[in-house]
């Protein structure tokens, strides 16, 4: 599988991508320009009307063929993803991510979207339809580069749009190969990758030929996209930063929930927007939860993602490594208690930071209030439900949250008080292609997945008469 995106001209330069686990080169990524972006948009504008005219059934059939193509190339895609992003092949990581790409394509193809009759009283008949937007710009992150690209691309294509993808500069090769694979099932020009720098992203967000931008990434970048998109009044779906709270109620069984808590926090080595990033545990079971979590954490092997035994990998880049290391060091200096980890790994190559649990930490500590986006979890003690709800809601983000309890009714009552787009019970971060997903507060706006996610990739039109 080559890594050349479909554009009318080749990129004039390339950039070497390195494995964050070893420092070894993975491959050469094209460095596209704003001119390349213009070619991609022109091709997309030319290809989109015929694609839209095919209708939902034919477009869905193409998405199913794309899912088949991904499965046919699954292992090579997973190997490339592991080398470029750093995540291990096994566990909820590279092979899991590639499998999710096929699953989300099939879900987008199979989700029904019927015309809604709004009024039909004998005098007035009004129907709600969703028409294609045109060209969608998809700007993706480096943590789940393939899966989140499919989250953006699959519904956009299903709804009759063309798509221009701008991947993260850290993980372009994975996305280029993924798009190349999907393109085995699509007409030419409909889906393209433009692998460039910040100038390309800014040009995409402001381009008059692009009718909607989908973005997953930091809140700061999301705000910049909002500003760049304003003059052309683009539609936006923004899935921005989270700092998800998990609340363990006093009736929970520490041993039973420990592994679920661990993977809620440490999936993809903590590099997940909707990961559990601050854990609140009732004082009655605080020590027991800390003990059980420590036992689980010590049993999870970390290392090179290509080693079949590992389930945790490196931080994807040095900047993120430094953020995690600095936040943990600040927590240690404040007097917080490190249960496991807490010291940078210096005896091997790569951006490895050990799995770290930090107890007896104040709620205003930076490790709690700032999104660490890595393998370090603060565990905060609380006494009352009112207290913990106030703490969970105190930040200006609200992507996800979770409540852990043996009493579902009690858990649901607490969940209803949390300011977050999704609140899971006895699990965390369990996204589902059938269930809408989106953030509250400064974690963004717009919904993805399910019928609501499809509607977000269309222009609503009422036919009245």
Automatic annotation (TrEMBL):
**Active-site annotation:** 239
**Entry keyword annotation includes Endoplasmic reticulum:** no
Pfam families xref list: Aldedh
Which InterPro entries does the UniProt entry name for this protein?
Ald_DH/histidinol_DH (IPR016161), Ald_DH_C (IPR016163), Ald_DH_CS_CYS (IPR016160), Ald_DH_CS_GLU (IPR029510), Ald_DH_N (IPR016162), Aldehyde_DH_dom (IPR015590), LUC3-like (IPR044086)
The record's keywords, sorted A to Z, are:
Oxidoreductase
| Gene3D superfamilies reported for this sequence | Aldehyde Dehydrogenase, Chain A, domain 1 (3.40.605.10), Aldehyde Dehydrogenase, Chain A, domain 2 (3.40.309.10)
| Domain Aldehyde dehydrogenase as annotated: residue spans | 13-456
The record's family statement is: Belongs to the aldehyde dehydrogenase family.
Return the protein name: Aldehyde dehydrogenase
């Amino acid at each position: 599988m080559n890594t050349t995106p479909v554009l009318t001209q080749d990129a004039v330069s390339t950039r070497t991508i390195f494995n964050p686990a070893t420092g070894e080169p993975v491959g050469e990524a094209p460095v596209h320009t704003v001119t390349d972006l213009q070619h991609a948009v022109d091709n997309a504008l030319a290809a989109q009307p015929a694609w839209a005219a095919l209708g939902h059934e034919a477009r869905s059939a193409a998405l199913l063929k794309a899912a088949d193509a991904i499965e046919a190339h699954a292992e090579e895609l997973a190997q490339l993803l592991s080398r470029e992003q750093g995540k291990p092949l096994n566990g909820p990581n590279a092979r899991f991510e590639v499998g999710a790409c096929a699953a989300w394509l099939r879900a987008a193809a199979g989700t029904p979207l019927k015309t809604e009759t709004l009024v039909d009283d004998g005098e007035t008949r009004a129907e709600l339809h969703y028409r294609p937007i045109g060209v969608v710009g998809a700007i993706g992150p480096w943590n789940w580069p393939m899966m989140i690209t499919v989250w953006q691309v699959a519904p956009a294509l299903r709804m009759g749009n063309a798509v221009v993808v701008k991947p993260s500069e850290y993980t372009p090769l994975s996305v280029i190969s993924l798009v190349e694979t999907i393109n085995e099932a699509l007409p030419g020009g409909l889906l393209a990758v433009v692998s460039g720098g910040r100038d390309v992203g800014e040009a995409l967000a402001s381009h008059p030929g692009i009718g909607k931008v989908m973005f997953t990434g930091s809140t700061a970048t999301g705000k910049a996209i909002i500003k760049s998109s304003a003059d052309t009044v683009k539609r936006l779906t923004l899935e921005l930063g989270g700092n998800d709270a998990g609340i363990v109620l006093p009736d929970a069984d520490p041993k039973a929930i420990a592994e679920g808590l661990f993977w809620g926090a440490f999936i993809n080595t903590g590099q997940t927007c909707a990961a559990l990033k601050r854990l609140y545990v009732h004082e009655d079971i605080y020590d027991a939860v800390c003990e059980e979590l420590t036992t689980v954490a010590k049993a999870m092997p970390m290392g090179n993602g290509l080693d079949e035994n590992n389930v945790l990998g490196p931080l994807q880049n040095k900047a993120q490594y430094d953020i995690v290391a600095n936040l943990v060091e600040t927590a240690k200096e404040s007097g917080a208690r490190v249960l496991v980890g807490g010291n940078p790994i210096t005896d091997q190559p790569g951006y490895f930071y050990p799995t770290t649990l930090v107890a007896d930490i104040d709620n205003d500590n930076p490790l709690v209030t700032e999104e660490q986006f890595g393998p370090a979890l603060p565990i905060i003690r609380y006494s009352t439900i009112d207290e913990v709800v106030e703490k969970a809601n105190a930040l200006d983000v609200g992507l996800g949250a979770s409540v852990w309890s043996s009493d579902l009714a009690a858990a649901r009552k607490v969940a209803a008080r949390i300011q977050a787009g999704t609140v899971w019970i006895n699990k965390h971060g369990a996204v589902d292609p059938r269930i809408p997903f989106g953030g509250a507060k400064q974690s963004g706006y717009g919904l993805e997945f399910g019928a609501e996610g499809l509607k977000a990739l269309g222009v609503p039109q009422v036919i009245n008469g």
